[in-house]
Amino acid sequence: MNGGAAWQGNIKARLYERVRERGYDSLTAFAEARPAVPLYVLADELGNDVAAVQVLSGLLYEAERHKRVTRFVRDVLVRELSERFPDGWPDTLDDATRGEVALALGAWTAYTPETHKERVRQARAVLRATPPLAGWRPLGPDDELLRTLLPDEEA
Asked: Could you read off the pLDDT of 50-108 as tens digits, one per residue?
């Protein structure tokens, strides 16, 4: 992002212009073509005048319109985990990795719409109580474990 340019002009129009330039008809289609890619990387791909939070907001908007918010919530976790643990879930949960897990789960919760916060809190508790196997790396929102934690029931 360069000098606040991401906050100048019509943000929504800029996002959709950029995804169309890349051959996609929606921000969701653009993101789905890049599963497990962190949000800031998606933003960077769209230009130095696009912020990750704008991509997040656009994806949530589209998810709400198409009643796919739960899938969006799972997708955000996948992207957070990919950013923090590119090689998969840590094999040892020492202080450092517990901190990274907390940061990933905290960001996930922060990015979750209010309609899904309680479900995310419950899923977080399960992940902390019974961590996934070492190396687990969800490659998208349809990961089996994630669908168990957050089934497609729209709030």
From this structure: 999 999 999 999 999 999 999 999 999 999 999 999 999 999 889 999 999 999 999 99
Q: What is the pTM of this model?
A: 0.92
> In this structure, is residue 43 part of a structural domain?
yes
| Range(s) of the domain holding residue 88 | 69-149
Residues 45 and 79 in one domain: no
3-state secondary structure the chain: CCCCHHHCCCHHHHHHHHHHHCCCCCHHHHHHCCCCCCHHHHHHHHCCCCCHHHHHHHHHHHHHHCCCHHHHHHHHHHHHHHHHCCCCCCCCCCHHHHHHHHHHHHHHHHCCCHHHHHHHHHHHHHHHHCCCCCCCCCCCCCCHHHHHHCCCCCC
- Same domain? For 49 and 106 the reply is no
